Amino acid sequence: MTGPAFDPDAIAADLLSGDRRALARGITLVESTRPDHRTQAEALLRAVLPKSGQSIRLGISGVPGVGKSTFIESFGGHLIAEGRRVAVLAVDPSSARSRGSILGDKTRMELLARNPAAFIRPSPAAGTLGGVARRTREAMLLCEAAGFDVVIVETVGVGQSETAVADMVDMFVLLLLPGGGDELQGIKKGIVELADLVVVNKADGEMEKAATRAVGDYRNALALIRAGSALWKPPILRCSALEGTGIADIWQTIGQYRETMQAAGAFGQRRAEQARAWMWNEVQESLIQALRQHPAVREALPALEASVLDGTLPPAVAARDLVARFLGRETLSAWADEDSAGDGLTGLPETATNRAPRAG
């Protein structure tokens, strides 16, 4: 079946002029899994890379019912009123299973979706979390090249995608309800440790006083969960996305964070570390794909999988057998001798799968 034809040079030229349709077409290209499209996508990324990197990249996550969509729409509207252009991307690993999309119809952010200074893109509905995250990183670069100076990467609920998002953004924002410290019990400690800013939403109506109390509760609870860094102690703010109150303070705090981190050199260092980890993630993804497609591996895989499933072969032994076939070796004994650490990952940078928790 023949898919759409892409001209990377034409897409790049239109995209760099701020054409949103070209941006959408470019993202469709980088999301494609066809080998020929991958080559064209890499050409497009090479062409626009020098024009990317000028935005502030924000990751936004929140507990169910926190009003994340309303917050992003209110926040995005505030930024656009200041003359900025806002792109919203999503990382939704569940879409890979359901073939659905949390932003598919864009009705959750109807006003923002209609604004010519905004661009909303649903999560790619195919692949693993790693694949979805990779395509989101590339989409982020395209959005920056198209002139969007604020790129928001949204996660679904509070689950497995937060670490992947934190590994691609400058600042990670966690939205919470006015429930006080008890609310944190339902959130994994590792996710709280990722937050550079905590926002208590729904500070309006009957919940306004509760939200004020919650700010203090969360501050005390977070002091026990995580230690602040020498550069930045995550503030806890309150807002009402529905009424628009507190949104300006949040944006001002984000600006302060950026200035603080840039002055210390930590902003660029974080991006450099993310780029390095991204490169190694690409190496790992490419190797796994090549291994799965190798004739010797494909021939042996059914029998090895069956042996693992019926309990007659340890998974580690089956894995080493497959890697040996991929490398054209009878066994992996020589490789094991070379890697005395035994994990095969010696010297690799921290990634979403092997990183240690962030201290601050």
Provide structural commentary.
The chain has 360 residues and is an alpha/beta fold. It has helices at residues 8-16, 20-31, 35-48, 68-81, 95-98, 110-114, 129-145, 162-166, 189-194, 208-225, 247-263, 266-293, 295-309, 315-327, 333-338; strands at residues 56-62, 86-91, 118-120, 150-155, 171-176, 197-200, 236-238. α1 packs across α2 (20-31) and α2 (20-31) runs antiparallel to α7. The longest helix is centred in the C-terminal third of the chain and has 28 residues, at 266-293. The protein starts with 7 loop residues before the first helix and ends in a 22-residue tail after the last helix. Mean pLDDT is 84; it is low at 96-105, 337-349 and 351-360.
Quickly count the domains.
Answer: 3
Give the CA-CA distance, first to last residue: 50 Å
CATH class of the largest domain: Alpha Beta
Q: Estimate percent helicity.
A: 40-55%
**CATH architecture call of the largest domain:** 3-Layer(aba) Sandwich
Taking all residues together, what is the mean pLDDT? 84
Q: Kindly state the number of beta strands.
A: 7
Order of helices and strands: HHHEHEHHEHEHEHEHEHHHHH
CATH third-tier fold name of the largest domain:
Rossmann fold
Arrangement of strands in the largest sheet: 3-2-4-1-5-6-7
List key phrases describing it:
single chain, 360 residues, alpha/beta, Single alpha-helices involved in coiled-coils or other helix-helix interfaces, Rossmann fold, Helix Hairpins, 15 helices
